[in-house]
Amino acid sequence: MDDTLNRLGQSLLTALPADVSRFYVEYDEVNLVIHAPSMLKVLTFLRDDPSCLFVCPIDVTGVDYPSREKRFDVVYHLLSPHHNVRIRVKAALGEGESIDSAVALYPGLLWFEREAYDMFGIHFAGHPDLRRLLTDYGFTGHPLRKDFPMTGFVEVRYDDDKKKVVYEPVALSQDYRNFDFLSPWEGGTPLQLPGDEKAGG
Questions:
Q1: Higher pLDDT, 152 or 12
Q2: Structural domains of the chain sorted by starting position, each given as residue range(s) with its CATH number in brackets
Q3: Sign of the torsion angle spanned by Cα atoms 36, 37, 40, 46
């Protein structure tokens, strides 16, 4: 299988030398690292070329590397049912930059790109309906970014008195505590069970 995937990766590198920077094979998938402005050109080739026929989009997502200059990887997963092969196409994107939407090539990606926009803040240029998908319309921030706080900024609840949904700053229901998870046999805090007084001498 690896030989077939390596041949496919090498053929893509040869066919699109200005667009593909490198490829590697991992977990029985070809990983194609491309230049972001070439995304539509590469996806069109992967869909239409007889040696590829990646006609089935599986997913679009992002990966956040806050310390990197090009902070995000935009990742497309595709399947070729004809050749029974999967491919992962990745492009690095800086914060504030946009990448062309692939909805015109794969209409089924409309909600996937909306999700990546909502969760990471990745902008897909030319997307027909780029708005939040999983968070509320007034939501601030992008929850899958590494710098987004674990507790979020606001909490949403239904107020019975006001008979409506209210937004409030996050309030933790209890203070942070130090828990000792060691059992008595591992040197933790001595645990007194009922009846232990009978065993003492």
A1: 12
A2: 2-199 (3.30.460.80)
A3: negative
The pTM assigned to this predicted structure is: 0.77
Q: Taking the CA atoms of the chain, what radius of gyration do you get in angstroms?
A: 25
Q: What residues contact 141, with CB distance under 8 A and at least 6 apart?
A: 148, 152, 153
**Of 132, 79, 85, the residue nearest 108 (C-alpha):** 79
What does the DSSP 8-state code read for residue 87?
A: E
Q: Which two tokens stand for residue 87?
A: 């491919």
The burial of 29, by beta-carbon neighbours within 10 Å (0-12 exposed, 13-18 middle, 19 or more buried), is given as middle
Indicate left, alpha or beta for 143 from its phi (over 0: left) and psi (-120 to 50: alpha): alpha
Q: Which residue has the tokens 């949904």?
A: 165
pLDDT (tens digit per residue) in 86-100: 999 999 999 999 999
Q: Tens digits of per-residue pLDDT, 66-88?
A: 999 999 999 999 999 999 999 99
Distances (CA, A) of 115 to 50, 86, 148, 175: 31, 22, 16, 33
| Single-letter code of the amino acid located at 41 | K
